[in-house]
Amino acid sequence: MRTEDVLAAIATGLWRWDNASGTVTLDGEAARLLGLPAQPVVLPEVAVRSRFHPVDWNEINGIVNLAVAEDTLAEARLRIMDEDGRVLRTVRSRSKPVENRSPDGRVDYELIGTIQEIAEPQPGTTAVHTPITGDWRRSREAFLLDAGRALAEARSTAEVLRVAASLSMPGFNPDGLAVFGVDGERLSVIGHHGHGPGDEGPFAEMRTDTDYPAAEVVRTGRAIYLPSPEDYKRRFPATWPLAQRFGRVSWAFLPLIVAGRTMGAWMAAFKHPVSFSPDERSVLTTVARMLAQALQRAGVAESERELTTGLQRSMMPQLGPEIPGMVLAARYVPTGGGLQVGGDWYDVIPLPSGRFALVIGDVQGHDVRAAGLMGQLRIAVRAYASEGHRPDAVLSRASRFLVGLCSSQEGDAPGGAGAGAGADADFHSPRFATCLYVECDPQTGVLELARAGHPDPAVRMADGTVLMRPTSGGLPLGIVPDTDYPTTRFTLEPGETMMLCTDGLIETGGHDLDTGWARLRAILEAQTPGSGAADPAHGLPGHAEAARPAAGHLEQLADLLVQAVHGPSSHHTTGPLADRREDDIAVVLLWRESEDCGCGTARPDARPARRTMLTVAQAEPERIAGARRQIRELLHDWADAEQVDSAVLMVSEMVTNVLMHTDGDALLVAEAVGELGERRLRVEVADGSDELPHKRRPGEMASSGRGVLLMEMLADTWGVDPRGEGKSIWFELEEQSKPDPDPLG
């Protein structure tokens, strides 16, 4: 009896699907099952496809592709439709894809298989739903969507492995998972779940030519399914003892393939029997593909983070040895998105004179090129400073260096200067940098500053008053080769803290310079460096380190400043600007220890004096507004607001008179001493002219001549002190607390 007769007797038909010619050959029984006359026939692919339910056709297409990839049988259940769209019957198809290579090298496939009718469960019975339709398909699709979303959101290898371990597959939950990576000719266990500590030992350093399923999967790039222990023992007898002790009964090993390269293998082990039907294999294959892509993304992201973090750390200096009498703290926070590198930097440079220099700067942009220019500029500034140059000379040389550096890069661009377009043109375009250079004398607290387009420093006085220190400055580095950078000099008094920062600390979150500074000022005023509790053993032999109680507090203050910009509170303190892009942040804090540093010699309990000094040059009359702002900030808690207005008016008049009636600069010194409510303010404005002020009687329409009259009317006392060269005009105000309103009035 022929094979066809035997198959016809058991209602099983034969078919041959030729992908190259697009034809399907059916025997008589197969034609009958498809609703055609019961005779052998050769039909076009479209004619046969029209007999299948559309949903089932999509399923079988995927199953066939899976069988081709894994070199296994393609099994599926199919609903046969008549010409009116009614379901005639349900059949089971089993076929084997056979590869056919044409003379021109093109690969086609031919399916050779059987088709057999199966009985559908009757209503009210407990028969299982067909695995290709109904609830199982919906649960599978929901599972794959959830798994894909979770794996796409994973940002590290550890997160990817945690997601893979938590996957709950529909109908066949794995009990143990393991992910193998390839390192040369060896397998390594990247992560596992459902095993005890140390269980990965025998598999950790396994060669890829080992008789082990994961090794074979890596070698061949094809999945291996082992439905029973007998299958495992038969196919891999050498490594069966390693797997036997875990008590699993079914295993699936799938390749992790990305862009045609096998990067590892994924094992799913089960304590219950799994037949690995085509649908189950389809789910496992889809998860393996998503897992491979997630691991690839996580690996690339981790490599980038490691590279950029290492690059930035190598460019960021250590604060170095302790400085006698001073404490330093610094923070660097790269921009929130993209590569974690940028153009901000800070540095601490020991100088040949025994002093040290603080440098903070910001190269335009926060990309790889900005980081590269930052590293080169930082080295140049350090070299110029180490040679002993003054602050103005250091910045002048740095500006020439940056101009030459950008010019050489622009000239090296393909096609000459300006030849690039898009990203290449931007990479070779000139860049500038802002910088603030401070030379510090730790013995006297004298600071000499040179500024190149950078935000001014802020000083927190010993009593908590915070002032922005206006300083002379020049253009940012890299704009004009020969630029002058005037030097500003002032003293950091004992107990005072100076803050240097880049504009990212001020403006991040939609702030401008004014609103951003107000946000930081609230943080600075709320903290008191040096107020930390000292070690009870301080003063005893061996406890000298406790004499620096502010070191930890300064670190806390640095963290609070960063949190004000990037922490949870920053979401409630957004600025008025619509543009809320993030920027790199660099901040340096310098605290000069007070005389009462916990060394056992406490000074008398007295409120420290507030003092500020400002020079207004003839060429900078706009700094008169800065002088007025300095007086207001100095007297921010003065009891009588009218006295504050009077002081601001007199200072403005005194400084303006110097600029109008002399050829020199005006030096403003203001000091407030005493307890709250009983303080005395003394303001001096010195100039280089010997001509003394005198009282004038201006007419009603006169535009000048009222300076002395204002002093007599508003100041408690005032005077003029001649000096060797020039004079000093001064006034004093006694703080007056407003009396309580009369309750009977």
Keywords:
six-stranded antiparallel beta sheet, about 750 residues, alpha+beta
Biggest sheet: strands side by side, in what order?
3-2-1-6-5-4
Q: Largest sheet, described in full? A: 6 strands, antiparallel
The number of helical runs is 20
Name the average pLDDT.
79
Rg, Cα atoms, Å: 41 Å
Q: What portion of residues belong to β-strands?
A: 25-35%
Class based on secondary structure composition and strand pairing: alpha+beta
Mind explaining what this structure looks like?
- This protein has a six-stranded antiparallel beta sheet. A six-stranded antiparallel beta sheet has the order 9-8-7-12-11-10, with helices on both faces.
- A hairpin with a 4-residue loop joins β1 (12-18) and β2 (23-26).
- α12 packs antiparallel against α13 (391-411) and α19 (641-661) runs antiparallel to α20 (707-714).
- By secondary structure, the chain is of the alpha+beta class.
- The chain contains 20 helices and 28 strands.
Task: Give a concise summary.
The protein is α+β, with helices and mostly antiparallel strands and 745 residues long.
Which helices and strands, and how do they pair?
Blueprint: H1 3-9, E1 12-18, E2 23-26, H2 28-33, E3 41-44, H3 45-49, H4 54-70, E4 74-81, E5 87-101, E6 107-118, H5 135-153, H6 157-165, E7 176-183, E8 186-193, H7 201-204, E9 206-207, H8 213-220, E10 224-226, H9 229-235, H10 240-244, E11 250-258, E12 261-270, H11 278-315, E13 326-333, E14 344-350, E15 356-363, H12 368-386, H13 391-411, H14 423-427, E16 433-440, E17 446-452, E18 458-460, E19 466-468, E20 473-474, E21 487-491, E22 497-501, H15 503-507, H16 513-526, H17 550-566, E23 585-592, E24 610-616, H18 623-634, H19 641-661, E25 666-673, E26 680-687, H20 707-714, E27 717-722, E28 727-734
Parallel strand pairs: 17-20
Antiparallel strand pairs: 1-2, 1-6, 2-3, 4-5, 5-6, 7-8, 7-12, 8-9, 10-11, 11-12, 13-23, 14-15, 15-16, 16-17, 17-21, 18-19, 18-22, 22-23, 24-25, 25-26, 26-28, 27-28
Helix pairs in contact: 4-11, 5-11, 12-13, 16-17, 18-19, 19-20
